[in-house]
Write a structure and sequence with these properties.
With 287 residues, the chain is an alpha/beta fold. It folds into 2 domains: 66 residues, Helicase, Ruva Protein, domain 3 (Orthogonal Bundle); 207 residues, Vaccinia Virus protein VP39 (Rossmann fold), CATH 3.40.50. Helices cover 35% and strands 21% of the residues. β10 and β11 form a beta hairpin. α1 crosses α2, α1 runs parallel beside α3 and α2 runs antiparallel to α3. It is elongated.
């Protein structure tokens, strides 16, 4: 057994070996999760002795974090858009940059929060994007597709957490392949794989080693999935339908060109917190 203050100090010292770890914060988060206590109270708790079984579990998680495993995968959760989502290694670890897509959709449609829209997410992953939007727009209905059945299990857990059983349908599909042609949508969103295949090995260890390659690999130039979306979306969009996409660094001109060649009009872009163009908005050209 060990005092909580000693456990905190030893955990922080270990986590300092990981240059990408916020050692003090992450040590507190791991300890708080295992001990089921308020993370903010850990520094001021005195004379709390932690039993050996829990010390061992905390030590295991700290050691995995030192090796680069993302904290979200260790804790099996991630905060996104002010809500906590279940995550594991079958889905991307949601990042603040992806909240830019939610922000742009909100900016487009917030003048009438009660409007009814059909929303499709391609590559739904954990469901954090589409669920965040359904929580904002109470009259939206959604469909989320993913090729990974393991990812869909995580999305289903999050769907249940937010009581969206009657508003969100999940479907195992490689992009559009299994979608009934009768389905039509007002909005299609996606954070597709956009890392060029040869660049994945250059990513931070915690991304390249631990996150699902299927959610990262965008083909030789990183643009394969944008081409698929551009070439097939018109079959599933209503008149004036919108496509809102997350993109990688410096991909905005290429992605615009792909969609403009496929009868889409570029409407707007949104920068992330670092000032990088992160999201593009297109509208289908009416015939």
């Amino acid at each position: 057994m060990i005092d909580i203050k000693q456990l905190l100090h030893s955990s922080v010292d270990k986590l300092k070996k990981n240059p990408h770890s916020n050692s003090y914060l992450e040590a507190r988060l791991i300890i708080a999760e295992i001990l089921a206590i308020d993370v903010n109270k850990i520094p001021i708790i005195d004379n709390l002795i932690v039993e050996d079984q829990k010390v061992e579990l905390i030590t295991q998680l700290v050691n995995l974090r030192v090796l680069g495993k993302p904290l979200a995968y260790l804790l099996k959760k991630r905060e996104f858009w002010g809500q906590v989502f279940v995550v594991d290694e079958s889905v991307l670890d949601p990042r603040p940059d992806s909240e830019t897509l939610v922000e742009l959709v909100y900016n487009i449609f917030s003048n009438n929060l009660g409007q009814k829209k059909m929303l499709l997410e391609l590559g739904v992953g954990s469901g954090c994007l589409i669920i965040s939007l359904l929580n904002i727009f109470k009259n939206f209905q959604g469909v989320g597709v993913d090729i990974s059945r393991d990812a869909l299990k995580i999305a289903k857990q999050n769907l249940d957490r937010f009581n969206l059983e009657n508003r969100l349908e999940l479907l195992c599909s490689n992009m559009f392949q299994e979608l009934p042609s009768s389905l039509k949508f007002d909005i299609i969103i996606s954070n597709p794989p956009y890392i060029p295949s040869q660049d994945i090995i250059k990513l931070q260890n915690e991304v390249a080693k631990f996150e699902p390659r299927i959610a990262l690999d965008g083909g030789a130039d990183g643009l394969d999935f944008y081409r698929i979306i551009a070439e097939n979306s018109s079959l599933f969009l209503n008149k004036k339908g919108r496509i809102i996409l997350e993109i990688g660094y410096g991909q905005d001109h290429q992605v615009k060109e792909i969609f403009e060649k496929n009868n889409f009009k570029f409407i707007n872009s949104q920068k992330d917190l670092s000032g990088v163009i992160r999201v593009l908005d297109f509208e289908i050209n009416s015939l």
